[in-house]
Every structure is written in C-alpha cells, then in structure tokens.
Amino acid sequence: MPSGSTASGDIDPQPPVEVTGLNLVAGGYLTFTGVTGATSYAAGCPDSECFSADGDVTGVTDYLGGSLGFINRAWAGYPGGENGISDVTVPLSSLVGVFLDGSQPDLSLAPGAPDFRLIGLDFDALSPELKQVFFIGDGLTSTNAVQQFFIPVGATRLYLGTMDGYGWTGNNGSIVVTVDAVPEPETYALLLVGLGLVGAVTRRRKQALA
Predict the structure, then answer these.
(1) What spatial distance separates the first Cα and last Cα of the chain, rounded to whole Å?
(2) 105 phi and psi, to 5 degrees?
(3) Is pLDDT above 90 for 81?
(4) E-assigned strands of the chain?
(5) What is the pLDDT of residues 146-196, one digit of tens each?
(6) In whole angstroms, what is the distance from residue 133 CA to residue 127 CA?
(7) Which pLDDT does position 19 carry in this prediction?
(8) What residue spans define the domains of the chain?
(9) How much is the pLDDT for 162?
(10) Alpha-carbon dihedral of residues 159, 164, 168, 170, nearest 10 degrees?
(11) CB–CB of 205/195 below 8 Å?
C-alpha cells in the first residue's frame, strides 16, 4: 500500500520498506539467520516488555488467555485482514514477513489468517501464500536448524516487520537479520524499527532505504 495508507483509521508513522534486490524465485526458499536485537511494542527497550525476534514467548503479555504472548488484530476488535493482507496469530513483537506480487494488495481479498498457536513455531519449513503474514522469529528451530520459507508463485516483493495488535505507536528497538534466497542467494542485513525497515546492506553494495 502507498505510504500514508490507513488500517482501521490508523496511519503507520513508519511504513515498512520493501526488501529490494532480493531475487524471489517461486519454488526457491528464503532463510533468515544471524538474527539479533529486540523491539518493544510500548514503553521501549530495554524494559520488561522488550522482546527478541521470537516475540513474547514467555507470556509477559497474555491477550488471548493461556496462549503465552500470542496476539492478533481480531483480539483488538479490528478486522482480521485489511488492505488485502491477512491477519496472523503470533507472539507479540515477533519478527514477521509477507510476500506480495506487483499489484496493490487491496485489489483482492485477504487470504486466510495463519494461527501459529496451531502451526507451532518449531517448523522445519513454511509455505505462506501471497499476502499471508507469516512468523519468522529467529529463523531457527529449537535445535538451531535453519528454517526454510518457500517463495509463493507470483511473489515479487517481501516486507518484514514486527507484530503489534493495532495502533503502531510507541514501537521501538531494532532487529538485524540476514536474508538468503536459495537457490540464488542474495544476502541482506535488515535493520527494523517498529514495523518498518530502515536500512539494508548487501554483500556487494550498500543501499539506503527511505
């Protein structure tokens, strides 16, 4: 969506930035490694609600009741999917992603909303649909195996961000992650603040992201 677009009346003060230059090939997959840093949905880092890329997996916040720190937009009374992009149930402040094609996402309906309470966070591989938000976290299983995220047919863009229920205000902190595309790897160091990417560095060149 263009900068300044709204969701339930909110305007993101720092919209996500597309990860440019990444060669997205259907049938290939991405890995997310070397993940460091932390973000907060509220008061700031460091504090008791400052979480790593896996988000609140210890239940500091318990919005859905008995589900550790999982959250979704529907909990807050907002439409699950907006602007053609799905809702998702994942730990609060966790690193998430979404694949888009070349069209504006609100021109078609949002896909189903993944619930990672059911899917789990310890998967070996994941195959999200276009416009379907998915959990990334630290990109590793509980045994430190690198997880694989398969690229859907038609994907031309990838966005990353951190999970919040609504509002987008007060998010801060940063996460740094290296993204590799397989079978044709291009590596990026991505610096996230709140819901938006603010920088990327490739192996070959440095590129400023607005």
Answers:
(1) 15
(2) -65, -25
(3) no
(4) 6-7, 10-11, 29-40, 50-51, 70-71, 90-91, 95-100, 125-126, 134-135, 148-150, 157-162, 172-182, 188-193, 196-202, 206-208
(5) 999 999 999 999 999 888 766 666 678 888 999 989 875 444 444 444 433
(6) 11
(7) 80
(8) 17-208
(9) 86
(10) -120
(11) no
